[in-house]
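// run 5 | inverse folding | seed 20
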């Protein structure tokens, strides 16, 4: 499957309800999104209101501006510090703030921040409105993909300012330097150098062009807290500037601010291409319409009003957190070498980029969330993300774990890109250079590849990932040499084994038989951690002996050997060979009892650990390693238990629709949102969809009707319709199922059948039908 002639994903977003009142029949999906869900404990990239899906601009108010965690927009805070344009994985920048009265810009955000109230606030996808009570200013925000648009309604004042505090500390760290220059009395330009972080190791530039629809009287600069007076240019560390106006009562002043990671000229091109006019309401309407188009690819009826709000809020998150960083002409900044280099995306016959270039956190755990959702509903996003990773391999020699600002970042462990590519390729999503992708992924599977970098280890050559041990012994012991974090040998071994299987499936799909057999054999390495005495996965020392201080569960983020988790959870981490795992446990009944006990013991904990206490639970849907556990009963002859526990997890861990619940603090750029969508529609893939012949496991849907529209550029069918009879809070168990009007007595459907289009009909009841769904599928134990 080849990509569309041009793919400009960022022409979307907008208006959505923040209430959970009864929903009118004519309301659209976009009207149901509540951006403020679980914003009491935001992460910097979590909240972006005036943003298009994957937009380069992520414009929203900031109430906290220091730290990656508990930063950005926090619902419980009383003051707004600024409106910044970038809320991305390890990227932040261009904070602005309108003020009137005595000039406070050089004194910092603590001096000029303003109180505000939720009573006068409107927060919707693509639009945010707040009243800055201190200044009596109404601020409205919207955006295109690469341009933020502001509309400020001011009181009468001879001292009206818009501050550009570009040198201020923002989110992940300090800004090394910033520069602002006046072009004329309606335009300024600038650049900011973001300091490197322990995740994004290199300093990274962002450029901007800002224009006003009214002439300003002067540009005022400051540096190191001292006013520089009127100037045409301000440059240096801890510097910023403001433009000054005279305004009448109720006068609206508009600003457009375009971003680029390549140059000021790139920002100007983005501005000219995406927003040549000054019609704020038009931008807001267009954002609304296009967001609704994206969200409407899945349409639902039934459920409670709160469940529908949460569903579309989940879907919104799945289309939000990973950001475009290429210009409208396809230019992007490559930071994989010693110096920044501007490169360009492939162009179609019409001269436009085939795909954008993306910035994203590591794909750790995405095989149980966005891989499944994107490949089914948004294949063009998956295609473009694959293309980004292939570009980075050509640029820097590695398929990335998670790129930021053109840098490699080595957050978390392993090579989660391989499951992403295997899922994409084996579902026919192939608009990138698949042979080059395979070359890079194969390199990652040996010493010196991306797996060999431990968490946050940016040393070269890498050593902390333990690949020399894995290649020689088939497992990674504890105490691996090298720098970096998450040097957890047991977790590495289990994830490497799964990733070997994914690479084997990719090789098989591409006709590389020798590689298929090699990596399929190596994927059995998980067995080398099985301790038959404890019947759990157990870490090994370098000597080959089991670790002596083995703790299957304990307080804290990790137990020895396991990455942000423990043995009780990671012992289920064999998604590619559940039949083999179940056999080691002693058969389906023994495994079922083990797994069911974990869930029963976790009911009063709502199936989540407090964030940072992941090793303390038997089930933890707050973090990635355990997010398939409720679906595993489909593999041990008890699909009714998957139906039971998936519904319970969905409604108890992820059902919240207030600012104080919904994701439990670690949404990770759409992963938990995507998981919530999958649980609600009753489709999942334990193996991450990476199989050469993918299947979807079935559980009971939350809604009476779900319709998924397919992208005909990738799939032959028009849509999948899922209907559910007798759905209620009590009726969670599947009684019978039909596929295209024929009885279906199995708990799975093949991807190739699903994307041909059709209708899946469920009938539910209050008691389990233990005879339904037992027909064996590939890899499913009888």
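// decoded
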């Amino acid at each position: 499957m080849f990509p569309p002639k041009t793919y400009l994903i960022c022409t979307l977003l907008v208006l959505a309800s923040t209430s959970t009142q009864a929903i009118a029949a004519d309301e659209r999906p976009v009207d149901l999104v509540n951006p403020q869900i679980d914003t009491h404990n935001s992460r910097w990239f979590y909240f972006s209101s005036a943003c298009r899906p994957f937009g380069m601009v992520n414009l929203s108010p900031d109430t906290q501006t220091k730290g990656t965690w508990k930063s950005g927009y926090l619902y419980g805070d009383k003051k707004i510090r600024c409106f910044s344009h970038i809320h991305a994985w390890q990227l932040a920048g261009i904070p602005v703030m309108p003020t009137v009265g005595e000039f406070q810009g050089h004194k910092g955000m603590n001096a000029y921040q303003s109180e505000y109230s939720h009573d006068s606030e409107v927060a919707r996808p693509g639009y945010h409105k707040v009243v800055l009570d201190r200044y009596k200013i109404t601020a409205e925000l919207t955006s295109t993909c690469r341009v933020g648009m502001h509309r400020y309604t001011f009181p009468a004042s001879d001292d009206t300012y818009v501050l550009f505090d570009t040198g201020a500390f923002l989110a992940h760290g300090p800004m090394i330097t910033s520069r602002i220059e006046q072009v004329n009395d309606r335009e300024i330009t600038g650049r900011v150098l973001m300091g490197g972080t322990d995740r994004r190791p290199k300093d990274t530039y962002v450029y901007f062009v800002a224009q006003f629809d009214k002439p300003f009287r002067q540009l005022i600069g400051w540096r190191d807290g001292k006013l520089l007076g009127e100037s045409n240019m301000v440059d240096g560390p801890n510097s910023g500037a403001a433009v000054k106006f005279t305004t009448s009562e109720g006068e609206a002043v508009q600003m457009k601010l375009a971003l680029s990671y390549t140059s000021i000229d790139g920002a100007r091109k983005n501005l000219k291409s995406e927003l040549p006019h000054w019609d704020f309401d038009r931008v807001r309407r267009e954002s609304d319409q296009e967001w609704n188009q994206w969200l409407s690819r899945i349409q639902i009826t039934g459920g409670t009003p709160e469940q529908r709000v949460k569903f579309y809020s989940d879907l919104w998150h799945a289309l939000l957190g990973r950001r475009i960083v290429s210009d409208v002409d396809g230019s992007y900044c490559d930071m994989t070498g010693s110096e920044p280099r501007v490169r360009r995306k492939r162009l179609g016959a019409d001269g436009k980029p085939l795909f954008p270039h993306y910035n994203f956190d590591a794909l750790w755990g995405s095989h149980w969330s966005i891989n499944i959702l994107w490949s089914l509903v948004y294949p063009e996003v998956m295609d473009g993300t694959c293309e980004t990773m292939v570009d980075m391999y050509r640029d820097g020699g590695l398929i990335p774990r998670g790129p930021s600002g053109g840098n490699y970042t080595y957050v978390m462990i392993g090579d989660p890109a391989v499951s992403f590519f295997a899922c994409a390729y084996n579902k026919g999503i192939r608009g990138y250079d698949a042979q080059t992708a395979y070359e890079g992924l194969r390199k990652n599977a040996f010493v010196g590849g991306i797996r060999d970098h431990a968490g946050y280890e940016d040393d070269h050559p890498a050593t902390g990932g333990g690949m020399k041990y894995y290649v020689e012994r088939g497992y990674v012991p504890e105490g691996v040499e090298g720098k970096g974090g998450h040097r957890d040998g047991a977790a590495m071994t289990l994830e490497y084994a799964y990733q070997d299987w994914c690479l084997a499936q990719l090789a098989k799909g591409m006709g590389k038989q020798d590689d298929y057999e090699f990596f399929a054999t190596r994927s059995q390495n998980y067995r080398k951690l099985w301790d038959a005495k404890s019947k759990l996965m157990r870490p090994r020392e370098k000597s080959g002996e089991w670790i002596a201080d083995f703790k299957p569960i304990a307080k804290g983020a990790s137990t020895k050997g396991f990455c942000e988790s423990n043995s009780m959870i990671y012992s289920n981490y064999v998604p590619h060979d559940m039949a083999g795992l179940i056999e080691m446990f002693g058969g389906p009944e023994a495994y079922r009892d083990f797994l069911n006990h974990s869930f029963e013991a976790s009911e009063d904990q709502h199936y989540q650990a407090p964030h940072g206490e992941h090793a303390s639970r038997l089930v933890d849907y707050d973090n990635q390693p355990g997010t398939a556990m409720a679906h595993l009963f489909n593999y041990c002859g008890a699909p009714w238990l998957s139906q039971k526990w998936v519904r319970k997890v969905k409604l108890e861990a992820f059902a919240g629709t207030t600012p104080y619940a919904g994701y439990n603090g670690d949404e990770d750029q759409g992963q938990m949102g995507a998981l919530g969508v999958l649980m609600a529609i009753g489709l999942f893939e334990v193996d991450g969809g990476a199989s050469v012949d993918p299947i979807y496991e079935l559980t009971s849907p939350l809604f009476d009707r779900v319709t998924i529209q397919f992208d005909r550029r990738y799939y032959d069918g028009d849509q999948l319709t899922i209907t559910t009879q007798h759905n209620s809070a009590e009726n969670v168990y599947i009684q019978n199922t039909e596929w295209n009007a024929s009885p279906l007595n199995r708990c799975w459907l093949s991807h190739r059948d699903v994307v041909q289009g059709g209708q899946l009909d469920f009938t539910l009841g209050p008691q389990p039908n233990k005879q339904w769904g037992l027909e064996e599928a590939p890899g499913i134990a009888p």
